[in-house]
Specification:
Layout: E1 4-9, H1 13-25, E2 29-34, H2 40-47, E3 51-54, H3 63-71, E4 81-85, H4 90-98, E5 103-106, H5 111-129
Parallel strand pairs: 1-2, 1-3, 3-4, 4-5
């Protein structure tokens, strides 16, 4: 059975290493981790993720801008995005949902809770694709 592909984009290298390890440890996911969003569109085209885990605050391109870029891309459009962020202000969440993210989780992340959400949104995407 093919593993679901998860793209993780976060500037905290230790966080993405830990997240990648925990997700791959389940045996259900293939994970590609990026420490910045500068080449996310090209990576999405090559890797074709089933879901993206994205930080909002990063150097260079911010998470909200990444969401807008993906929404305007034929391959990126429709990929579920879960925001993982230390920011928990209502305005930040509002902006994230307004640009199409499916969920928003505050850091620190409860990995079991995240895995349940990942599975749910991948199932929604697969049903929508038919």
């Amino acid at each position: 059975m093919a593993k679901n592909k998860i793209l993780v984009v976060d500037d905290e290298v230790d966080f993405i290493k830990l997240l990648k390890f925990n997700l791959e440890e389940t045996g259900k996911y293939e994970v590609l981790a990026l420490s910045n969003a500068n080449d996310i569109i090209s990576q999405v085209h090559v890797f074709k993720p089933d879901l993206i885990l994205l930080d909002i605050i990063m150097p260079g391109i911010k998470g909200i801008e990444v969401c807008e870029m993906l929404n305007n891309d034929m391959i990126g459009k429709g990929i579920p995005i879960i925001i993982l962020s230390a920011l928990a202000k209502g305005a930040d969440k509002y902006r994230a949902f307004k640009v199409g993210v499916v969920d928003y989780m505050g850091k620190p992340i409860e990995i079991d809770h995240l895995i349940v959400k990942i599975d749910k949104y991948i199932q929604f995407k697969q049903r929508a694709e038919g």
